[in-house]
Specification:
single chain, about 120 residues, alpha/beta, Rossmann fold, 4-stranded parallel β-sheet, two-stranded antiparallel ribbon, 4 helices, 8 strands, binds iron/sulfur cluster, CGGC_dom, CGGC domain-containing protein
Length: about 120
Amino acid sequence: MKKIAVLRCLRTSNNCTGSGCLKAFNNKTNAFAVYEAEETELAAFLNCSGCGDVQMPNNEEGLRKKLDRLVTIGVEAVHLSGCTKKKDAQGEKHECPVITKTAEYLEQQGITVVRGTHH
Ligand code: SF4
């Protein structure tokens, strides 16, 4: 059983149910289609810990704890939701730098990072 996690943007989670990510996971569509032949478990569905005026107390420490927990529970792949990319003034999307650092940390722990869930 392959353990998967989804990481999304705390700001976006304010007005997002996560249903698009969950539907894609449940139906093995979009970025989850690669698991078609495998048994999968959604072992975690977490937010980052925020930034700027929208953040959790002790956000860096809290985020690190969550990431280390993913390692402990044996998550093999973390999918970064589309909301972890933000549009610039020209309408082009760029990955949030906090998420880029987070992805690097996860990869250092031996976890595969996949960019995308359902779009
Ligand atoms: S750090 Fe990035 S992903 Fe997290 S809330 Fe801020 S903009 Fe969203």
